[in-house]
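Structure tokens please, single chain.
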Amino acid sequence: MFLAQKARIKLSCTDFKQLNEICSQILEVAKRTGVKHSGVIPLPTKKMVIACKKGSGLQRSAYERWHMRVHKRLIDIEADERTMHRIMRVEIPETVKVEIELKEQ
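Here you go.
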């Protein structure tokens, strides 16, 4: 009996445009090879806020704030060897973090 594997691809990046572009490239590979996939699932965005004082001699309310948001996406694909090789060939920038987990169905 043949058990198919499922690949769960988790992507995260601070630039959502870049992240969406990579997701669309991965989905295009899945469509071209004809495997089943469940589309791009947006996960909750992690928001980090850092506040610090501008200077020691200034007013009490003189604070600066920096914001950083980490956007996350999830893609499930039926993993056959040909599809996974093509996904591995997709050029991914250094700012995008990718995790691929293989599971038995």
